[in-house]
Amino acid sequence: MASTATSSISLQKNGSRTSFPSSPGPRKFQTTIKFLSPSTKFIHVKSSATTSKYNEIVVDEEMDKIRRLQNGSDVRGVALEGEKGRTVDLTPPAVEAIAESFGEWVIRRLENEQGRPVEDVKVSLGKDPRISGASLSVAVFAGLARAGCLVFDMGLATTPACFMSTLLPPFAYDASIMMTASHLPYTRNGLKFFTKKGGLTSPEVEEICDRAARKYANRLTKVSTLLRTSPARVDFMSAYAKHLRDIIKERVNHPLHYDTPLKRFQIIVNAGNGSGGFFTWDVLDKLGADTFGSLHLNPDGMFPNHIPNPEDKTAMALTRAAVLENNADLGVVFDTDVDRSGVVDNKGNPINGDKLIALMSAIVLKEHPGTTIVTDARTSMALTKFITDRGGNHCLYRVGYRNVIDKGVHLNEDGIETHLMMETSGHGALKENYFLDDGAYMVVKIIIEMVRMKLEGSDEGIGSLIKDLEEPLEYVELRMNIISEPRYAKAKGSEAIETFRKYIEEGQLPGWELDSCGDCWVSEGCLVDSNDSPAAIDAHMYRAKVSDEEHGQYGWIHLRQSIHNPNIAVNVQSTVPGGCLSITRVLRDRFLVASGMDKVLDISQIDKYVKSS
């Protein structure tokens, strides 16, 4: 590696695309060469002078290194040493191959749409403060330049801002990449991809990673390209912050001080040392808010205080304490890249998960009575009641923020008005905001409602909007690791979950029934679309409602194959005492053991819960 020469390229205005010479002879052949390397057993070489421009070398192990980096609609991996049992796999050469493939994908898509060759395709890159960002950014710039794109460096940014950089003038880039691993440890990093139409889907990212895998496997020198010319630096975050300020000013329309509608409001922001500090000084402060007492605003890629995550108990507890100590009107918690958020009301009550969905539902249903609200299928029965009591419709759907958002897009296309899509993790998107999951925009909506309530004479605070939301009596989340080599784990996990579905459909688990949502064409455990254009399934999961003669439906269970790790998540909720234990015991005894799946899955967490309860 160290002795390999490093090539150089320049970021020119009309970057040329890589071309490969055709094979000289007309002969076709196929051969298999055996290697003694323990990691790479076979290399399959295919060559055709008439159908291929160059010899294609397919190395299974090398290609798998790239394919395993796909994480649903994102790319994620280990970028730095420091995790026990994990090796670095998100390397600069891997990132360069992925960025190049994304650039080529964008160019092809634009050419297909416009019916002609395109030039000067512009792609921006933003990043969170992770310490691996600098070296991996160079790899992204190099890959995009190899694809023939013009590249623009946004520097420290947020995921929503990267998407908005494809829309807001004068920037309006053709595509954007955000480098982040969200709330994961400092050792991780990743890529999120956007065009003017929104975030890429899992099948699209799979296509890009597949092409990148072939590039990576064919490059015998696994050294990232050295840049001669730095990309153009742009300050998009100032434009994005102004965009948010303008929304607040226009929608509050304060009768006394239009330009400072947050005057006499104190708002605490906890950015967790991620990218969210801008919201304090570039949005709230400039609108007149008092932000004294805000926490961890300076970006620090080591995240020294706590995980930047609105689901993190430490993050919420620190924010709650700051709100109470300063008698603030609102507390805000952002995740690292600000595509998620949570809040704390003026009484110190944390609002995240189901509560945050309920709060946003209450606000949206005021503006759009009768609208459908899409959530993932791990939300409570009480949330469904909360939404329907206010005249809304609740669509339960697949876990995964991209799945939830895309379902809302498709429902609107099918004529079902859907203004809010939210996942329990805090990802939330609104139809009015380009179906973008933007944690800052969610907070903007909440702040606008808080100010309106104050102008109407209410001092109760935003928490009063969800005071009648019931909480589930019991809730438990467990994990079952898949006993398999990594390359076979996905198939084995799918087999286990499909067997679960089969057991329910055959009546082998009495009182259990696959859940459905007929009004929005979702069936078979909130997984399968039953309309004319079903979305592709990226991970297998089913929700079953559980009933008995005494209580009727008293709970539900959700089994989900993780796209992050080789395991299956089990979520159980109950409205009666002992319900979660009863459901989990049936899962273990009458499904896992009876079906033999306890040989495929490590059920030690299940056992421990059943025995200790």
TrEMBL record:
Origin superkingdom: Eukaryota
Protein name: Phosphomannomutase/phosphoglucomutase
Organism encoding this protein: Melia azedarach
